[in-house]
Design brief:
Structural class: mainly alpha
Radius of gyration: 16 Å
Distance between the termini: 15 Å
Number of helices: 7
Number of strands: 0
Length: 161
């Protein structure tokens, strides 16, 4: 198997893992602590391999997430496209940030994602979410250094460009 094919399978596999991780059920008490896994995986690949992750890939992952999660079709696709667009725009800066600054940037991006979700759901006629709904971006930002180092280590071991 050639390197390009292995690389494509690795990126696709981690994106699929992010989508499946989104479906893991948690008790209702812990539900607000669940990070948005597809966004975190897309963030990693957008930062590390900007030429592979495009807005089209983000849109397709978002549509798959919409279908798997059973939410308004296009909701997560819009959110992930906005997220990837911002990351690709500032990719050259984000790559060379120290980890604490990168984590802060991820927190801001995940909060922006929550604001977009709030706008979409408000226009769809849903009630405002409780205050605990805002915890998820902070959990995602706290997990970012570990996820980044894990995926980066695996990427280096498999020599994926």
């Amino acid at each position: 198997m050639n390197r390009q094919r292995l690389s494509l399978m690795w990126v696709s596999g981690t994106l699929a893992f992010g989508l499946l991780s989104m479906l893991v059920p948690l008790p209702s008490v812990l539900q607000s602590f669940k990070p948005y896994w597809p966004a975190l995986v897309l963030l990693y690949w957008s930062i590390e391999s900007g030429d592979r992750i495009t807005l089209g890939v983000a849109f397709m992952v978002g549509l798959c997430a919409d279908l798997l999660d059973g939410v308004l079709l296009g909701e997560q696709a819009l959110r992930l496209c906005a997220l990837v667009f911002i990351v690709l725009r500032f990719r050259s800066r984000l790559r060379f940030f120290p980890m604490w600054q990168q984590t802060l940037a991820v927190l801001i991006l995940l909060l922006n994602d929550r604001v977009l979700l709030l706008i979409v759901r408000t226009f769809a006629g849903e009630a405002l979410p409780p205050a605990s709904w805002w915890i998820s971006p902070f959990v995602g930002a706290a997990l970012w250094p570990f996820l980044f180092l894990l995926l980066d280590d695996l990427r280096m071991r498999f020599r994926i460009q």
